[in-house]
Amino acid sequence: MAVDYRNQTTLITGASSGLGALFARRLAARGSNLILVARRTDRLESLAASLPQVRVTTIGMDLAQPGAGAKLAAETAERGLTVTSLINNAGFGTHTLFHEADPQRITDEITLNVTSLTEITREFIGPLRAHGGGVLVNVASIAAYHPGPTLAVYAATKAYVLSFTEALWAEAHGTGLRVMALSPGPTKTEFFEVAGENADGGMPRMSADRVVDLAMRALDRRNPPPSLVTGLPNRIAVGTGRLAGRRFTIRAMGTLMRQSIRR
Description:
Elements: E1 9-13, H1 18-29, E2 33-38, H2 41-49, E3 56-60, H3 68-78, E4 85-88, H4 103-131, E5 135-139, H5 152-171, E6 178-183, H6 191-195, H7 208-219, E7 227-229, H8 232-244, H9 246-262
Parallel strand pairs: 1-2, 1-4, 2-3, 4-5, 5-6, 6-7
């Protein structure tokens, strides 16, 4: 049965496009008020205007800046908003050999994917647990399940997100808060405009609509899983990597991804 979100206010980071914007549409359709956060305020305003059935607050903010979590919490408090559900979707990846990566880009990637996600979760976890009827979704990746040569930092940050979120899933037991790490494979979003078109390693890309539909279906369960890998091909890829052993998997991934850089 589809969960009713009419008593919810959901904060979504990275809401200007891709999975974040689709989560906003799905949750608005179920009645949730929204707080949409991203750098591109013009896109946030356009999305908000298309969702007249609920109250939508937009906040333009660069979450890759230090202290973003506390700043976001202060902004919502100043506006008198109580967050009852949270979708941590903001993040990006870099597709290059680590020794050739721009140091500032690495710092920004870790700050956004790990530090800000953690800080934002800590700032809002109290109200989420107190409300007891909402969701906490942290977007990870199938890259979280094994090291990613040429995506070394991205894969490592998503491994953190997966481990962190699964721990919170256990801590939330009995509170009514549904916690889940969402682990898509390559998805048709703007991710590849930033990371590079060959960052998928040649794997097929799933539609963003399908990813969000699978996530919403999982969250409709009475007891959602601690993590969700979306799509059978992606589950096979993760399972095969585990069965093949780490040495073989890392070398095979390294060969595949180095070839993708040269394409």
